[in-house]
Amino acid sequence: MDVDRFDQRVRRLRAPARARPAGSLTGGLADRLRRGCGRPRVRDASGTDLDALTFAVTVERAAAGLSRRGTCPDDVVGVLAPVGPERLTAVYTVMALGGIALPLDLDSDLETIIDVLTAVDARMILVTAPLAGIARELADRSRVRQVVAFGEAPETTPFGELLMPSPDGSGYDPARGLFDNGILAYSADAGGVRTALHGHRELLRRLGEVTEALGLGPGDTVAVDSGMAEPERAVLAAAALWSGASVVTTAARGAEAVGRELAGFGVTVHGSPAPARVAG
Q1: Among 6, 12, 76, 235, which has the highest number of CB atoms less than 10 A from its own CB?
Q2: Contact, 206 vs 25, CB < 8 A?
């Protein structure tokens, strides 16, 4: 028997399942992390710190929860949150369901956001608790009917409810779906609202480019911040986790402020002004 061919077959059998995303940027990530030997984390400069497997499992369970609440593939879901683990969780959750994530610009005025939500027929917003009041106002003045909040906030559905098991034991498995969902970017001016969908195929292609160009691995800590475009931030964070690297987020603005926030985190890759290796 050809020994080289036998060794190649053994290596294929030992390779972790789904070494690349399936269906969305996080499709199969939880399985990948369970089989990995590293212990990557998702942290925020303000103090949030959780292991990457918990993060990935949360996304899968929340996507199943959205499905139980009536959200369907291709539905547009608004995300109102500062840059941080919760914003990443919300964006990935929507895409894991096959939905289209609409991250809302916190610098936009309310009228612009209302116009955008109405134009794309968004019926749900995922929001961090401190911004829940704004989300409720947006719901009152648009077609949004559900506001889901990270944490406790009056007149909202707690995000934790999405993580509850199905009452009848059935469930939607977002890791098994195949979608061309994505992230919806928008701009608004006197001429109206303009949108651009960054679909899964585009995001996956960019993920491969970033992973190869940066040589990401388990020893890396990748920083994502508010200076990045939303699709690039989602891609870089996903590329890090698929490579076994840790992610650290910051909502700080400007190079000096970002540098101060991230000091002490051992960052080896910065996301802005463009993804680049700075150490390691």
Answers
A1: 235
A2: no
